[in-house]
Every structure is written in C-alpha cells, then in structure tokens.
From TrEMBL:
Function as written in the Swiss-Prot or TrEMBL entry: Bidirectional uniporter involved in the facilitative transport of nucleosides and nucleobases, and contributes to maintaining their cellular homeostasis. Functions as a Na(+)-independent, passive transporter. Involved in the transport of nucleosides such as inosine, adenosine, uridine, thymidine, cytidine and guanosine. Also able to transport purine nucleobases (hypoxanthine, adenine, guanine) and pyrimidine nucleobases (thymine, uracil). Involved in nucleoside transport at basolateral membrane of kidney cells, allowing liver absorption of nucleoside metabolites.
Pfam families for the chain: Nucleoside_tran (PF01733)
Protein name, UniProt field: Equilibrative nucleoside transporter 2
Lineage of origin: Eukaryota, Metazoa, Chordata, Craniata, Vertebrata
InterPro entries: ENT1/ENT2, Eqnu_transpt, MFS_trans_sf
Natural source organism: Mustela putorius furo
Signal peptide: none
Length: 458
C-alpha cells in the first residue's frame, strides 16, 4: 500500500511507465521466436526465390538446415543462467542507472540492426552468425534489465509490480498479434518483415522514454529516493512480496520473472510468524536445498519439457489442410498466440486454488506426465522428418495438445513457485528464492539443449 504522506501518481503516469517497461523487457525474446519462419526463409539458401524471407510459416525442406529454432532458444536462455550466477557481482559493481539505461540502448541498437538486415542481401552463413550473436547479446542485456527493474519495483507499492508483470505478460501476445498483422497487411514479404522488426524498436524506444521520465515524476522520486541499500538476494525477498496482489489477477507468462513468486504466501499467516530480526542466522544452502529439492526438481522438469519442444518442434508443425488462409495463419495462431494465452490462463488458476499441496506426491507425477507432450508434438504434422511417422496429422490434435501443454506449463510452474516458501522457515526464504531462480534458469537451458536431440530424432 502507498504511504499516507506519499504524493499522488498524477494521470497514472508512473504506472503506465512501468507497464511499458515490463512490455519492453520481454519483447525481444517473443519477437525472435515468433519470427522463426522469416529467419528460416533467409537461411534456406540460394535456391530460394528471395533473400529477404517471409513471415509465412510454410517453409519446408532445407529451410531449417541451421537448426535456427533450436539455437535461438538455447542462446536466449543461456544468458539467463549466466547472469543468475553473476548477479551478486554485477549488481554491486555497476550502478543501477547504467544497468537499466545501458541495457535498453543496447537492445534498441541490436534490434535496429536486425531490422536493417531485412534490407541487406547476405548469404545464409554470415546472416546466421550475426543473428545468433544478436540473440545472445540482446538476451544478456534483457536479463540485466529485468533484474534491475525488479530491484526498483521493490521500493514501489505492490500495484506497480502488478502493472510491470502485466506488461510482461502481454509481450508474447503482442508479438503474435504483430506477426499476424504483418502477414495480413498484403504488402510484399520484405516490407512486411521490416515493419514487424521495427515494432519492437518502437517499444524499446518508448521504454527508454518512460525510464528517463521517472526522475521527473514526483511520485516516482518519492519512492525511488528511499530505496534501501540491499544485496540482490535481499531484493528478491522484497520483490517477491510485491506479487501478492498480482496473483489475484494471474501472473503473466514470463519464464524469467517467475522465480519472484517464491514468497507469495509470506503474508497469509502473519499471526503465526512473529517479526524476527533481519538476520536471525545465516541459513545453510544445503539445508534449504534438502527441504525444497523435490519442488526444485519439478520446476526444472516443467521448463525442460516446455523448452525442449517449444518453439523448436512446435514451430515446425503445419496445417494438414490444403493451402489457403487457414494454413498460412495456422502456426502463428495455434502455436504462438494460443500458447501465450493459455499459459497465462494456467498461471491465473493458482489465484483460486493450489492443488496438489506441498506434502502430496501427486505434483511429481503430474510434472512427469508432461513428458508425454514431447512424443505427441513430434508425431504431429511436421513435414521435415526422416525417421518418425506422422500419427496425428489433423490440426485438431495439435490444437488440443497445445491447449493442455500451455495450461499445464503455466499452472505447474506457478504452483511450484507458490509451494516452495511453505517448505522452509521464514528466514530461509531468501536462500530458497536464490536456489529456485537458479533451477528455473537451469530448466530453461536444459530444455533448449534437449531440443537439439528431439529435432534430430524427427
């Protein structure tokens, strides 16, 4: 809640700014994976009719010779794992303003480069190398940016963390809708692709303007000026507390931010948890891990399964119907848009119930059952295959699998993050948060690595 002597957020400008900043942090990842057909077209080689690629999802044959969708997933998630390990060093040595503004400017320049490459004729090899380098650096800066902004949110009223996370939750849906509008615009493939990649540049530029405006807004100055000196681990506990109100509306679909839900239940039983000294004793990492290892393993497995097939395999699924409007829009709608919407729905369900509870052995069973989605998607209508047959050619199969896949991903991920704090003592939640953040990043990276194996088995 806002303090009694706090100024008012005139015209909700601070709230709007944090909403746009949240949107900007996840636009790069979502715009890259949604544009996989464009990149596959550029990498198809000299036998294609254009070197600019297309946003359509009907590429076959050599279009994915570079395993682009696998590499873009892996090189997007490895920076998260790296900066999870380097957080303490980075946050102590680099000023917050440099981290946030520098990251935004770097992301803008790199995305401008991606947009400019649409107009540049280039052979597949150099184009692939430049694109992969851009993916790595963009997601590295996004990891730094996101952690830094959550640090600022730790000083704001909880409603502002809700707005920030809502902006992040819309990033995937926004990217899918931008893809659909580009495809439906009726312009040539090059202009369509250029317009698509300029869109996130505008979003990042707006994020820069919003961040620069915060020091000039009295409401933002009031809270940001009172920011305590905290280590990254201490910030995590404060930031996670802010998500109490967000859980009522559903946590948006960002794998990078989900670790901040760890202290979701911290305020539910205040009468049972009397206030303790700030540091009642340094908790043991090993003891905390012993308490949460099963929940952490479930979190790793949830994201390993998800990233092993999405988008590496699911982006290759095409409609089995005859060529037409439906087959053209099938993958952007049924893969990316449907996943983002239903994943958000799954996360929202934890606002109403938490089942199974932390003492139940059903959670590992439910998480383990998601492994079945790997063969199910691999046996869908993916034309580029040499080993496995197609057992589920109809579009209805893929849509059904995607609905269950996305809802279960959102729900089980959110559930594990809600149950973790119940398994440790109050003063151990900081360590538990750090551990779960690491296992989150580990699951994402493992899933991206496994995607190469599953792609090779097709």
């Amino acid at each position: 809640m806002a303090r009694g002597d706090a100024p008012q957020d005139s015209y909700h400008l601070v709230g709007i700014s944090f909403f746009i900043l949240g949107l900007g942090t996840l636009l790069p990842w979502n715009f890259f994976i949604t544009a996989i057909p464009y990149f596959q077209g550029r990498l198809a080689g000299a036998n294609t009719t254009t070197t600019t690629g297309t946003l359509d999802s009907n590429h076959t044959g050599p279009a994915d010779a570079f395993n682009f969708n696998n590499w873009v997933t892996l090189l997007s998630q490895l920076p998260l794992l790296l900066f999870t390990l380097l957080n303490s060093f980075l946050y102590q040595c680099v000023p917050e303003t440099v981290r946030i503004l520098g990251s935004l400017l770097a992301i803008l320049l790199l995305f401008a480069l991606t947009a400019a490459l649409v107009k540049v004729d280039m052979s597949p090899g150099p184009f692939f190398s430049i694109t992969m380098a851009s993916v790595w650096f963009i997601n590295s800066f996004c990891a730094v940016l996101q952690g830094s902004l959550f640090g600022q949110l730790g000083t704001m009223p909880s409603t502002y963390s809700t707005l920030f996370l809502s902006g992040q939750g819309l990033a995937g849906i926004f990217a899918a809708l931008a893809m659909l509008m580009s495809m439906a615009s009726g312009v040539d493939a090059q202009t369509s692709a250029l317009g698509y990649f300029i869109t996130p540049c505008v979003g990042i530029f707006m994020s820069i303007v919003c961040y620069l405006s915060l020091p000039h807004l009295e409401f933002a100055r009031y809270y940001l000026a009172k920011k305590p000196s905290q280590a990254p681990g201490q910030e995590l506990e404060t930031k996670a507390e802010l998500l109490q109100s967000d859980e009522k509306n559903g946590i948006p679909n960002s794998p990078q931010k989900v670790a901040l839900t760890l202290d979701l239940d911290a305020e539910k039983e205040p009468e049972l948890e009397p206030e303790e000294p700030q540091k009642p004793g340094k908790p043991s990492v090993f003891i905390v891990f012993q308490k949460i290892w099963l929940t952490a393993l479930c979190l790793v497995l949830v994201f390993t399964v998800t990233l092993s097939v999405f988008p590496a395999i699911t982006a290759m699924v095409t409609s089995s119907t005859s060529p037409g409007k439906w087959s053209r829009f099938f993958n952007p709608i049924c893969c990316f848009l449907l996943f983002n919407i239903m994943d958000w729905v799954g996360r929202s369900l934890t606002s109403y119930f938490l089942w199974p509870d932390e003492d139940s052995r059903l959670l590992p069973l439910l998480v383990g059952l998601r492994i079945l989605f790997v063969p199910l998607f691999m046996l869908c209508h993916v034309p580029e295959r040499s080993r496995l047959p197609i057992l589920f050619p109809q579009d209805a199969y893929f849509i059904t699998f995607m609905l269950l896949f996305a809802v279960s991903n959102g729900y089980l991920m959110s559930l594990t993050m809600c149950l973790a704090p119940r398994q440790v003592l109050p003063h151990e939640r900081e360590v538990a948060g750090t551990l779960m953040t690491f296992f989150l990043a580990l699951g994402l990276s493992c899933g991206a690595a496994f995607s190469f194996l599953f792609k090779a088995l097709l």
